[in-house]
Amino acid sequence: MTGSILFLLIIVLGGMAWFFGRVKANRFLTDSKKRGEVHSLPNYHGWYVALWAIGPALLFLLVWNITSPALITDAALASPAAEQLPQDAFARGSILAEARSIASGQQVKAFNPLSQSMVEPYKTAISYYQTLGAIAALLLVFAGGAYSWLRLKPELRARTKIERITMMTLLLASLIATITTVGIFASLIFESARFFSMVSPIDFLFGTEWNPKAVAGPRGETGFGAIPLFWGTVFIGAIIAMIVAIPLGLMSAIYLTQYAPPKFRAWMKPILEVLAGVPTVVYGYFAALTVAPALRDFAVSIGISGASSESALAAGVVMGIMIIPFVSSMADDSIAAVPSAMRDGSLAMGATNSETIKKVLIPAALPGVVGGVLLAVSRAIGETMIVVMAAGLAANMTANPFSSVTTVTTQIVQLLTGDQEFDSPKTLAAFALGLVLFIVTLLLNLIALRVVKKYREAYE
Amino acid sequence: MNSTTALVEERNPTDWHSNAMQTRIRKRYAAERRFKALGLGAIILSAGFLAFLLIVMVGNGLRGFTQTELPVEIDFPAMTGGASASQFEGANGEANLRTLGVRDIVNTSVEIQYGDEGSALFSGGGWQAVSAAILSDPDIVETKTTFYLPAESEIDVAYKGDGSALAEAKVTELSDQLSTGFNWNFLSNSDATDPMQVGIWGALKGSLITMFITLLIAFPIGVLSALYLEEYAPKNRFTDLIEVSINNLAAVPSIIFGLLGLAVFLNLFGLPRSAALVGGLTLALMTMPVIVISGRNAVKAVPPSIREAALGIGASQMQVVFHHVLPLALPGILTGTIIGMARALGETAPLLMIGMRAFIATPPGGIVEPATVLPVQIFLWSDEVNRGFVEKTSAAIIVLLLFLLTMNALAIYLRNRFETRW
ipTM for the complex? Predict the structure, then answer.
């Protein structure tokens, strides 16, 4: 906890630096001779001093936190207790790690007596380096503050400097999104590459047997054929869910935009939005608790064999309900974007409302609607909790909606929960599945956005 | 004669009085009505799904806030051998209570009243309520007091009308003694193995800490990027790259963020598993694009005349943005932020990836301690076999939905109250 106290202290000192800088700059203004030369307002002088005080110190602390663990380990190894440690690098490392976590308070008791003996040297080293770092940081605060405070002059371009720093911060903040995208791509590619060095990509992408094992079977089969997962994902997300969501979403949008009295619309639109705001885990529970048993009983009563309490239909229908508001708002937007001259023209020719909608509005809005549906599909296949809770784990290749299928996201969750070893193909397979999912959703989004954009341009 | 009228009718299709025309119009109007009814049906069906979902959850969940209780009379003077009230006051109270062995006292009292098998009727953690009662009012150890302790989960479920035949039989046997009380444990406890003892406080606290970290990271970064992209960014390839990656991130499935968190925060940076810190960081990356997109729209909505006026009286670019544009855009940004945070609060999948699904029986004390969050807790309870967990899961869902509803209502209020139409 000393780290956060130090941090707070530095911030408080920064506030004081701001105050002193401001006071000095205020004096420039009261001094009538220099008044005309003052370039920046006192506030900016204050910020100038504060940034000089805080910036270098925080930067130093960042570097220090990265480098000091190595220094601490060196210091602990130099202690007499370290001589009893085994030479084997692996055993040594585990003892050191245990001793470190005890010394820093994350762990209470050691399993290995050797690590207990290393706790004391670690504790001394940690406190030594912590104190050293804290003193250095505080010195930097004072040095930076004093240096910049002495440099305050009426003609100092404090505002320009502060604005340049703000600009850099803005740029850095907007880079985070790019870094995240690159990070997602890099981590998926990196882990997938490790996976594909163990399992051939052809087997993975075109194999039809999904039964992941940590070690390959006698004939080299690994059970990493992902086709059943792809089928399950498409079956639930792109077929069943869309059969529910497209008609309901489209018709809701048409009714709300074309027929509904304003009051009805004002009430129904937020209600549909609530449907979109319900967390997916709630939908999943609803599917597993209420919808799935009801569908199974129904299937049994009409004599369908292979009905399971975890069915593709239950997951797909509930997912479709979740997607309705999404489809509806996309359709709403694209219908609203059709120029009213087209609608008015059709009505003036004597067409009824429904004829206008069916023969003029929908065909004209079709690209937008298709784009919206593609976005909805991309969201449906990336959806996790509903399928985890309701679709089951059996990797079946079946078109029977009452039987259980599994999806890409379900298997990612399945592979990554529980005990993990980071080198086993079972764990790494999750990243390969993630990569496929990422690429597919990315492509769907790009295509959808292009379609929507093209169509918008057509009417502008 | 007949043939000529037929001919005229054929030539005159717009004769409104002709039978054929009337039929056609009737057909077209019927189609119109059918279509309209279809639309109304679709929207009522959609709203009906929502209503059905809410009714199911509330119907199941309200029972989770109550518990079935059985009276136990504890004769403290006889049991404790005359412990005095003053022992349990002040600083030493808890230590003295531990030596007293409340658990045994409760068990013995139960066996006296309900026979040797009596303990099986009660939930295992009931004695904790007795301990708490003694600490809050030590005087009761000098008297005979009747406590209402939670019954065993099967009996609880059966009393609420949904149990097994065996438990139902016990309920009829005990029916004059069973009563229903408010389940305070549910609001103050954490996860447990016994459904009578579970609570949501641990998960709720985990959610609050996680949300705080998410907000702390996503809000500044989101607002600053929105300002940069709208106000400063030059039109070039580099800016396009940033824009594409933000739009792309907004559409990436949430589970992919979990994979990123696992690969980068846990394996590369070595941050602790299951910690609220990692959960908050992961959700922040997910929420940030939402804030950027809504922030850009809010900034875009500030009319150029305001910028020009500020520039005209000598403000610098930076002053225009931070003194004028940002304050005017803030309500819009806040609305987007709350909506993004509400989505993050309901998110489960990425948190499963970074290990926030462990069984955690104490509320987290800090950002690096193992924690769980409300949606994950719901997921974990939904997997339990014990029937007592069904109503607890639904009750937790009610709590989660209440939070989300409040956040969304706040967003709508902010939008209506502060958003200016220029």
Answer: 0.86
